[in-house]
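Question (not urgent): is this output format expected?
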Amino acid sequence: MAAYGSPTLSMSFILKSPRGTSLSLPQSLRHLHHRPTLLRPCYPPCAKPQSRRPFSLHHNIHSIRTRYDSLSPIIRLPIYTFLAFITWFPVVWFLHNKVFQPMLVKGPSMYPFINTDHYTSTRKDVVAVMMWEAGYDVRRGDVVVFRSPLDPEKVVLKRVIAVEGDAVHTRAPCPVEKQEIPIGHVWVEGEHPEGSRWSYDSNSYGPVHIEESHHW
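Got this back:
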């Protein structure tokens, strides 16, 4: 036991590190000699979490707009054209295929109701075809648009003369004098005074399936 006032000796313990070098530990840290790795300091110190700016749509749009304005006009023009195309294309497609679409009428088959100036002018009438009413509530006297059974590449416009369940007196070149209209079909004809000479209609290809027709 050391006398009062005399210097005390600090006891140390020698440990072996994994690499074989010796580590000298004071007695006060003796209880840690089984886990020398706990003495390693953390370098670099853990960074404090930084606060993130909340999402702001207005700020992001303003940033994109600023970058866009900084571009040269040669680069901005194709970008603007592309953005306008992808923005309006779905709208135009929906209106054209599901709501209505314009149709240029050629030929004299519906003369004089349509293309009244066919024999005196090259002007052609334009009609609006209602796409959302395809095959719905078709009545006698309606003007409908459908693909020609003789040439599916052509779209024709005719007037409904008879609907399902009716019997109609036909014209040449129909092989029968009287035709009964089956369920789901209509009988269509052109309006030219000379008939089949200027119009290919149901007298040439028979009744038309009602689901293939569109109002105009």
